[in-house]
Design brief:
single chain, 278 residues, mainly alpha, Rossmann fold, 2 domains, two-stranded parallel sheet, globular, Urocanate hydratase, urocanate hydratase activity
Length: 278
């Protein structure tokens, strides 16, 4: 609201980063109250707290609308912000006719990540079961070598090469950034062929003793083809199937039939319980 009252537009890019997948139990604090007062009200009068959350979100949408009209680009982060705004009665341009979801502000997956996902590049995660930092360092090197191998392929499209280039920079500098919290795990974006080759190289490294323990391969927070999230990954599917958990189910069952020893079906994924299947 303060920025909306400024004479000049001071913000070019905007999004909401609150935990709106759980807005009434600490994921969103209404602007009308201090943090401590909000905690007390949440405990003593949850219905009143919910009313204030809705009022606060309506005010937030009104301020965003003003900034957007002045030229600020706004996107939904996939944190159920616009869904919560809809539930709060804010005018966000959604129509439920024929099961079509059309908020006036796009999801970042639709508007920003879509081009990358369409190339087949998406995040996956691996965990070194040994718990050794030395194993994670080796997996970084293995993945980096595979990426370099992929980059050296003839006739690689420029847009694909750029993805590999950026992901190589990431994996070569990840250790230096000290991003590990708890388990020795890493996230990397790659396409199908890159994932296959990295997985096979990990298997070989375990077999030969280069790695001291197994490596668990899993998904990351969002996915290229295994997520059904009508307010994020599958928000632009207009035939009604955005609300069907088809891709995620086919992935988890299909992977198990093809010999995967570790499969999982996740609910929510940052969008709210019951709002996505991964």
């Amino acid at each position: 609201e303060r920025l909306a009252k400024e004479k000049d537009t001071l913000v070019d890019l905007g999004s909401d980063q609150t935990s709106c997948h759980n807005p009434y139990q600490g994921g969103y604090y209404p602007v009308q109250l201090s943090y401590d007062d909000a905690r007390q009200l949440m405990k003593n009068d949850p219905n009143k707290f919910k009313e204030l959350v809705h009022e606060s979100i309506r005010r937030q949408i009104a301020a965003i609308d003003i900034l957007y009209e002045r030229g600020m680009y706004f996107f939904d982060y996939g944190n159920a912000f616009l869904l919560t705004a809809k539930n709060a009665g804010a005018p966000i341009g959604n129509s439920d006719e024929k099961h079509v979801i059309r908020f006036k502000y796009p999801s970042y997956v639709q508007d920003i990540m879509g081009d990358i996902f369409s190339l087949g590049f998406g995040p996956f995660r691996w965990v070194c079961a040994s718990g050794l930092a030395s194993d994670l360092k080796e997996t970084d090197k293995i993945a980096g070598d595979i990426i370099k191998e992929q980059m050296s392929c003839k006739d690689i499209p420029a847009n694909v090469f750029k993805q590999y280039y950026n992901n190589l920079k990431w994996i070569e500098e990840a250790e230096e950034a000290k991003l590990v919290v708890g388990s020795q795990a890493r996230i990397l974006y790659s396409d199908q062929m890159g994932r296959i080759k990295i997985g096979l190289a990990f298997n070989q490294a375990v077999r030969t003793g280069r790695l001291k323990g197994p490596v668990i391969l899993s998904r990351d927070h969002h996915d290229v083809s295994g997520t059904d999230a009508p307010f994020r990954e599958t928000a632009n599917i207009d035939d009604g199937s955005a609300f069907c958990a088809d891709m995620s189910m086919q992935n988890v069952i299909g992977d198990s039939f093809r010999g995967a020893t570790w499969v999982a079906l996740h609910n929510g994924g940052g969008t709210g319980f019951g709002q996505a299947i991964n």
